[in-house]
Amino acid sequence: MAAQRGQRNGVGGDTPxxxxxxxxxxxxxxxxxxxxxxxxxxxxxxxxxARLAVYLRVLSAMQEQGAVTVSSEELSAAAGVNSAxxxxxxxxxxxxxxxxxxxxxxVLIEEIERILGLTRKHSVAVxxxxxxxxALANYGGFPGRGFPVSALFDVDPDLVGVPxxxxxxxxxxxxxxxxxxxxxxxxxxxTPPPAxxxxxxxxxxxxxxxxxxxxxxxxxxxxxxxxxxVDLAVELQVLSFHVARRADDAAAMEGRQVNxxxxx
Amino acid sequence: MAAQRGQRNGVGGDTPxxxxxxxxxxxxxxxxxxxxxxxxxxxxxxxxxARLAVYLRVLSAMQEQGAVTVSSEELSAAAGVNSAxxxxxxxxxxxxxxxxxxxxxxVLIEEIERILGLTRKHSVAVxxxxxxxxALANYGGFPGRGFPVSALFDVDPDLVGVPxxxxxxxxxxxxxxxxxxxxxxxxxxxTPPPAxxxxxxxxxxxxxxxxxxxxxxxxxxxxxxxxxxVDLAVELQVLSFHVARRADDAAAMEGRQVNxxxxx
DNA sequence: GCCTGTGAACGGCTTCACAGCG
DNA sequence: CGCTGTGAAGCCGTTCACAGGC
Lengths: 264, 264
Fold this sequence. Notes:
Two copies of one chain form a homodimer. Chain A is α/β, with parallel strands linked by helices and 264 residues long. Chain A has helices at residues 36-43, 46-64, 72-79, 83-93, 105-115, 131-138, 175-181, 193-205, 232-256; strands at residues 69-70, 97-98, 102-104, 123-127, 149-154, 163-164, 167-171, 184-189, 210-213, 226-229. The first copy, chain A, folds into two domains: 32-115, Orthogonal Bundle (Arc Repressor Mutant, subunit A); 123-230, 3-Layer(aba) Sandwich (Rossmann fold). Chain A is built from nine helices and ten strands. In chain A, the strands form two sheets. The first copy, chain A, has a seven-stranded mixed beta sheet. Chain A has a three-stranded antiparallel beta sheet with strand order 1-3-2. In chain A, strand 4 (123-127), helix 6 and strand 5 (149-154) form a beta-alpha-beta unit. The radius of gyration of chain A is 23 Å and the shape is globular. Chains A and B meet through helix 1, helix 2, helix 6, strand 9 and helix 9 of A and helix 1, helix 2, helix 3, helix 6 and strand 9 of B. Chain A binds a DNA duplex (22 and 22 nucleotides) through residues 13, 45, 47-48, 71-73, 82-85, 87-88, 90-91, 95, 97-103.
């Protein structure tokens, strides 16, 4: 898995599910009266949401190859998980399979897209048009499209006005105005670390509710804003840890004269 | 990820060094008396390893500002986690704090670097010199350096020989030779999806043990190879899910006439 | 008194295994 | 009979709370 969770500003503990004043004194466990859609959506584990996105991509590929139905076994193999987990994940969004047969590809695609909110387009703004920003801007139409990059920003006056990936770069001072006008719902921060927090503040000010942060900085945001962080240095360091562990293992085995059998 | 087969081997918890050889009733060949370093390294939760990398960056920044000691409270706040988690994470690598005082910055940095295997440089090879590959190649010296990008590869003959970020691009057919020569330990895949598996196979063939995969593909690798995946489309879709959930919540509240209190 | 280090409680994700239905 | 859907068990990481040193 990639992308560490992280963010969560909370000073002490994290906010519990969402206990309203009413819940406190309820001595009897009872079924909540909350709207079904909301409840169900909230009940999906974050980890499962990420996997649903993967299933969606696999399903799209299968659909293009003309597949009409898939079994949990096939789909899970293609997505790199085990079938029990896949069925559990799908059960979070409802029961769309046919026992003894499998799932209808088109139905699953529709349902997953609905749950992930992909039926609605989400405009993306990329801030920081350096190497990474360039790459992201040109990525145009991410796989499993639905995320049009509709605004680019940078501090550098020389970049302002220059078209990158077909879109003109604006100055970061224009973030509020341009984001509002183009109804940007997701902001991507690809600036140097020192600039990240200021950019983040501007995005929040502009009403952006979700941020994908590539800068190695812990962003401070209001509770209603969701942040996901992609940290390349961390990824490499985690890999480094595994290299080191492996080396230790090897050294240990060699030095210990273990019998021929290798455990792993 | 992969790693099916439970391979239990008397690795209890983090109990004191007391290998109870008596309890084993299985005649299965096993490694007795495992080295402490290996044991400890294996016991660190993956999630904790990722956070250690974050602490390291924060500590480096603090060191540059002249800090000599930090308390778990300060460090955890700067890293965006709670202090209990931070102390637990640090306890996995040993006891380097002073009760009543805190941790010595330089000591912590050294120990974390040691555990993450950063005392040894890890050569990185980037395969696929498109937009993203370019960005990665120029990233040169990732924050918290120690990961020199020492080889670049692409299929495109026109790119071969062209210097990117100071390094000449090689053809992917040369992966085995070049990687061996430059002792590459980490491979980064930034190719289009269809090429990813083939490139991965070549890297494995070249002896690379860890791979960072940016292609939206589930790679098949031998058990001894570690893969981490960064999937931009999945990140965006997870954010999309949250946007949708928020919208549902708002709609639900409005339609339900919830009492004045706002939950989150 | 203050802050670290950690056993134990807790909660959430994963795995199991089988009931349920086509 | 096959495959989905799911309660229940198991496992693992997080949180709590306090013992242990300084």
